[in-house]
Design a protein that fits this description.
The protein has 122 residues and is mainly alpha-helical. 60% of the residues lie in helices and 0% in strands.
Length: 122
């Protein structure tokens, strides 16, 4: 019986896969087959280090900071300034909110500096 066109005869239908060519290894998709063809040279290592450094900077910039303070609870503001026994004047409210914002700025200063420096390095 003649075999169909385009098919070859296999002796083992589920045999082991053919060995991978070093150029087709998974690392070559990251570094490129030309870079790995003659081994890793100094500039190749510089590129790898820069790739990981940029990744680390992205993580630093995008990291969720749970101790970042900048919340104003509407119910708290209303109960403190409007619904109190003697409602606060606009001047008193502005002063209290300015003091609160200054406290938030002092708490967040380290986090903001870290993010700003990561942006500058990136």
């Amino acid at each position: 019986m003649a075999e169909p066109i385009g098919r070859t005869k296999q002796t083992e239908p589920f045999g082991p896969p053919p060995p991978m060519d070093p150029v087709e290894m998974p690392a070559s998709s990251l570094l490129g087959s030309r870079a790995l063809s003659d081994g890793l040279q100094a500039w190749d290592w510089v590129a790898v280090v820069l790739l990981f450094a940029i990744g680390a900077l992205a993580v630093v910039m995008l990291w969720p900071y749970y101790n970042f303070s900048s919340r104003f609870d509407v119910e708290e503001l209303l109960s403190q300034y409007v619904d109190a026994e003697g409602p606060a004047t606009v001047t008193e409210m502005c002063r209290a909110l300015a003091v609160r914002l200054k406290r938030y700025q002092q708490r967040n200063q380290r986090i903001i500096r870290r993010i700003r420096e990561a942006f500058q390095l990136a």
